[in-house]
Amino acid sequence: MLHTRTTWIRTGIGLTALSALLLTGCAADDDAASFSDGDETQDAALSGDTDEPQETETPEPNYEYRVTSGFFYQGVSKDLTTVNTVRPTNKTVTTPAGTLTINQVDELSDIDADAVGLEQKYDEATTEILPYGPAEGEVLRVIDFAFVASDTEGAPSTDLSLKINGTQTHVAELRGSDADRILLSVPADGSAQLVVSSDGHDQFVDLLTGERADDPVTATYYRDVTRQEPHHVLKIDSSEFQTWLDWLEQDIVDTVSYDVQIDSVELTPWQPEKGWAPEGRTWAAIDWTYDINKSSDESWGDLRIESFQFDLAVNSNDEQAAISIAEADTSRSSFDGPGHIDYVSVPVGTTTLTLSVAGQTTMVEREATLKEGVDPTASFSSGELALDFPDGDLPSTEDEPAEDETDEPATDETEAPEDAS
Question: Does the keyword Signal apply (predicted)?
């Protein structure tokens, strides 16, 4: 939907009266008249004869018609006459629902009435159609943006609003992919902002430059690396239980195998259940599966898994968190955890995550019995999986000394610099 502000302001062209003061002096002799204080600097300034560069201000065009302060119009054409185009560096704004990209900001001196749905005004003498200028003390800008929706399940909507002269005006709710061009009249002092809101948190974009302001809450979105997809199976030794099957008078070995796979790990400042991470923290979203399975030498009278529990430990910056799993069902010989995502809180500056598993399995007797001295509970653990999330510039190999370089101290036998004269 197009939003239009049709109010206009007519300003008269004022005439400034000029006056001059004529200073004359006379004397009996040939001495010229001069200022009594002898201020040579002031004399030079008055005469225009000075080495100091003189700053001149370009007068603001005196438009007969102007838009109102904070005027904006959505869906403006690309076929406009611009005086400059700014392409921002920090041009993306990421939210749980997707990513907003500021493609460019166009600078305009004025705008035709029909381009923004305003009433056309004419010069009384020439009948020429007159343009509209920005509001007094403001400038005209066109912000060109696109929004690409994410596939995050349960993500809240993203809302756009304009904050101009202390007043915040809602512009649009972004739920799917979209694009728009909005013409605005904004203060020339850079105080106007595009506000990007999601789940109770705001991010800000400068409407003069299109640059996103730094924000500690969402900083994780803008890191160099936020996602790793190892699809790695943690190595875990199987547990063996020696049993005796009486009616067969036979020893049987029951084996429990463990399969824990880490599919992906992503650092993100927001998650569906708990929203934005606390200050100084971020979420590690772990997509993983597990499978606990018992096999036997003999299908008759074997053991069953009575229960098991284990922790998926997540270590970061000498801090440990854990995802705990526990199940008990004596009627089953296998358990599995289908692909799902669990979240743990880690420090916002995390650059390495280490994951590992440790737990216990307890067996229950059926037809077979555990041999004397065999513990029905076995412990198991895995090796570690380390995932790196580098941020910022990596160390340059150019800073490392070459192989033929030595650590010998420099001598004083240096050439004197040539005389530039």
Answer: yes
